[in-house]
Predict the structure.
Amino acid sequence: MTGEKVKIGGVPMQVVSDAEADACDYLICMPWDDNSPFKDNFRGICCMCGVTVMYRWHAPRQPKRICIQCMTENLNADDKSTVD
Ligand SMILES: [Zn+2]
């Protein structure tokens, strides 16, 4: 599975290991939801639209956080930075 290339919302991305994840371009997050079943989510800010997002404690910390809406709207298939 690691190294595999997949498309999510039409955006190509590469599956990486936990060890490689800190070097990724983006961490895709869901918008903050008070009704999330996880009460220990971390809060972040989408790097493109500024909306508050949530992510799990074990998610990589270095990649820029981006909400799933900005991911599908702004990272198109021609942007090679998402797969390299
Ligand atoms: Zn956003």
In short: The chain is about 15% helix and 30% strand.
